[in-house]
């Protein structure tokens, strides 16, 4: 069977094959038959897209012989129509393929050199912000001054000192956490030198009396403890007093002055103390000797001194446990640490600092009493005086124990751990600085 040409529908092709003669007669005698036949053939051809390759050459088609018998009817006597055909018979040959248009030549891009970006505008030099002015000691001691001196001013007012005013003054001094003995000594001097005087005179006497007591505990250059290197400092204090933070600040001070520092985390009873001291070591840039939590504090202190000697350090600061349990275990532990420190460095520890929280008031006095019973304390550090409502305890400590006050903490910054100077402290306390 011959293949169906691509330019004609299969239905029309089959019909033409089976009715070839009828189609021929139809074309000859029916007006418009050619147009109808073209309409049946050409729409399909036109709807097909032009082939991409040249069409195949079809072999000539041969009409099969007709199997119909010749008609026995007499030929028609009607004259043939002389009317011309309305259209020429459609060619059965396939139309020539329409060649696809040649692709347009795409011009190669021309490299265009972009102009160099304009240099950014030169920013005007901004002068560095000036460093903030250091906060004065008077501002740091504002609450302490208000609690102690402010209360005295409210009691005295403008009245002359009489028996009734003396009773009110006594109550104010006893509630200022000066301690019983210190409050009584101050009252005795006021009664002796200011009876009948006005408030300004009473205030002057109290100021001079407090300054005298604090002058006795101001460290003198001739009394500075020396030893080493390394200079070994043992730091004592209960938990929460600011002991470990004070050690970090002291390390930062020494490092800023060009000294090499080694820290010893001998507070093995509190794991957080070890971590805290290691953070300070990283911040300051010094070696930290630490043991396992719950380990032997004396062993850590011994390793600290050995490391300080090996590194030729100038200062060795050793933290200790802050627990106040019973006197005997505390005495044994501190005595053991002191003996161990003196093995490699003669005279060590060269200093033993007791850190006290000023906010604890009379508890600071009782802690000092307990520690001085079990070991020799060479210096005090009073912390948190900036927020203390009981800052008068420093006067009571000075009056009762006479231990030098090496440093006072009046803020959280490293620079807020200051050397104690009695006159400066009293001026700030009474608002004269």
Q: Can I get a quick summary?
A:
The chain is an alpha/beta fold. The protein has helices spanning about 10-20, 20-30, 35-45, 135-140, 140-155, 165-175, 180-195, 200-215, 245-255, 270-285, 295-310, 325-345, 360-375, 395-400, 420-430, and strands at about 230-235, 260-265, 285-290, 315-320, 350-355, 380-385, 405-410, 415-420.
Strand order of the largest sheet: 3-2-4-1-5-6-7-8
**Proportion in β-strands:** 5-15%
Number of strands: 8
Instruction: State the secondary-structure class.
Output: alpha/beta
Distance between the termini: 125 Å
User: What does the average pLDDT come to?
Assistant: 76
Percent helix, as a range, is 40-55%
Order of helices and strands: HHHHHHHHEHEHEHEHEHEHEEH
**Most strands sheet:** 8 strands, mixed
What's the gyration radius in Å? Answer: 56 Å
SS summary, helix count: 15
Shape assignment: elongated
- Poorly predicted runs are 43-51, 64-95, 103-115
């Amino acid at each position: 069977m011959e293949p169906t040409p691509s330019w004609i529908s299969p239905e029309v092709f089959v019909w033409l094959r089976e009715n070839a003669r009828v189609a021929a007669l139809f074309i000859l005698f029916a007006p418009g038959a050619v147009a109808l036949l073209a309409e049946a053939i050409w729409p399909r051809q036109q709807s097909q897209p032009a082939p991409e390759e040249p069409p195949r050459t079809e072999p000539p088609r041969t009409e099969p012989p007709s199997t119909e018998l010749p008609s026995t009817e007499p030929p028609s006597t009607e004259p043939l129509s002389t009317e011309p055909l309305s259209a020429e018979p459609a060619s059965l040959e396939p139309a020539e393929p329409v060649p696809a248009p040649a692709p347009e030549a795409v011009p190669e891009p021309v490299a265009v050199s972009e102009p160099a970006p304009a240099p950014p505008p030169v920013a005007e030099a901004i002068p560095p912000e000036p460093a903030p002015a250091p906060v004065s000691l008077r501002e740091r001691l504002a609450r302490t001054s208000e609690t102690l001196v402010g209360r005295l001013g409210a009691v005295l007012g403008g009245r002359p000192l009489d028996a009734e005013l003396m009773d009110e003054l006594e109550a104010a001094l006893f509630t200022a956490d000066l301690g019983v003995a210190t409050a009584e000594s101050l009252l005795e001097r006021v009664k002796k030198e200011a009876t009948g005087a006005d408030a300004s005179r009473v205030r002057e006497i109290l100021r001079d009396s407090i300054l005298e007591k604090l002058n006795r505990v101001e460290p003198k250059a001739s009394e500075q403890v020396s030893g080493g290197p390394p200079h070994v400092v043992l730091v004592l204090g209960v938990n929460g007093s600011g002991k470990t933070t004070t050690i970090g600040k002291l390390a930062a001070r020494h490092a800023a002055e060009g000294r090499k520092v080694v820290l010893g985390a001998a507070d093995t009873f509190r794991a957080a103390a070890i971590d805290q001291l290691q953070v300070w070591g990283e911040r300051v840039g010094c070696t930290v000797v630490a043991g396992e939590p719950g380990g032997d504090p004396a062993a850590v202190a011994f390793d600290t001194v050995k490391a300080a000697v090996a590194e030729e350090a100038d200062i060795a600061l050793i933290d200790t446990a802050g627990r106040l349990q019973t006197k005997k275990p505390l005495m044994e532990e501190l005595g053991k640490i002191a003996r161990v420190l003196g093995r490699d460095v003669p005279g060590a520890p060269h200093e033993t600092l007791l850190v006290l929280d000023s906010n604890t008031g009379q508890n600071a006095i009782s802690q000092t009493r307990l520690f001085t019973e079990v070991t020799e304390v060479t210096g005090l550090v009073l912390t948190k005086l900036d927020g203390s409502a009981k800052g008068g305890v420093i006067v009571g400590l000075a009056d009762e124990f006479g231990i030098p006050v090496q440093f006072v903490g009046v803020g959280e910054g490293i620079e807020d751990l200051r050397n104690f100077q009695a006159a400066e402290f009293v001026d700030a306390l009474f608002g004269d600085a």
